[in-house]
Amino acid sequence: MEFQQLLERIVQDSITHAKWLNTLSFMENAGARKISKCEHPVSVTLIQLKHAAEEHRHAYYLKKQIGKIDPELCTTYETDELLAPIATRQYLHSLDVKACRYLQTAFNLNKEELKYAAYLFVTYAIEVRADELYPVYQDILTKESSKIMVKSIILEEEGHLEEMINQLNEFSAEWKLHAEKILTIEKELHDLWINAIAEEVSQLDYA
Ligand SMILES: [Fe+2]
Ligand SMILES: [Fe+2]
Question: How far is the centre of ligand 2, averaged over its atoms, from the C-alpha of 206 (Å)?
Answer without folding.
Answer: 36
